[in-house]
Amino acid sequence: MNTGTALPYRVKELARIKDISREAKVRLDFLEFAKKHPVTVSCRRFGISRSTYYRWKKRFDPRNLKSLENRSRRPKNVRKPKWSVELIEAVRKLRGEFPAWGKAKLVVLVRERGFEVSESTVGRILAYLKRRGVLKEPVKKVKVRRTPRKRDYAVRKPPDYEVKEPGDLVQIDTMDVRPEPGCVFKQFTAADVVSKWGFADVRRAATSSLAREFLEELIRASPFEIRGVQVDGGSEFYGDFERACKELGIKLFTLPPRSPKLNGAVERLNRTFQEEFWACYDGDLTLQEMRPSLEEWTMEVLV
Predict the structure, then answer these.
(1) Do the bridges between strand 183-192 and strand 198-203 make them parallel or antiparallel, or are there none, so unpaired?
(2) Into how many domains does the chain fold?
């Protein structure tokens, strides 16, 4: 016995045009098949129960293929929260006093006011107040991208700049030296890319004037002429340091932002100083003691 519903002409063609899901198309195929075959045969063929067939058949509207789509399973009668007006107002006021606090911190203050409430309940009340637009959220700080300072002399290293001999390119960098908590010194480090020769000095700070002094010390100590140096964008390599390079006729190359790997030689040397010198240093924490000790170790190990 054929109990199928007569479908309009070219309904299946419309299914390909209409934006319906794969599940809806399967149901349409099933109803098309059931139109020409007995219900029992159709259900066995598609692996569908008779009750499911009748449910699909009942809700199917041939003029609206969306009627075969999955329906929302959300309950029609959703349980409404049972919060007292006093509790909601307490949460609202406390969040107004502490706009950056979340449910974990606010629940402590809510309980101090005599309410027996869980952290999750406070979170749901906050979400409820946000949906109503009652809460004023703290303004998030917007990070402003700073425009790089214009350099008077330094440039990016050209791709065709050749580094063949010692002195063609010496990488210079600074690093923090923390021999004990709350005590910070700055080490200036230089590494020749070709010969791997290194030089270092330690100071109380890293300023452009001290960077210039380090450059002058570096030139005096170097066994070869320094023709080019490469630095990162640290402020200590502006001002006096940049003018010194220009006056001395030394090419000054700067790295692109966030690219320390391009200064790999001096980065590796900094690690050597950290692991082999500063980790073993047990002298006085004064420049009068630290600078000679660093120079002596450098001459013995790196030169």
Answers:
(1) antiparallel
(2) 3
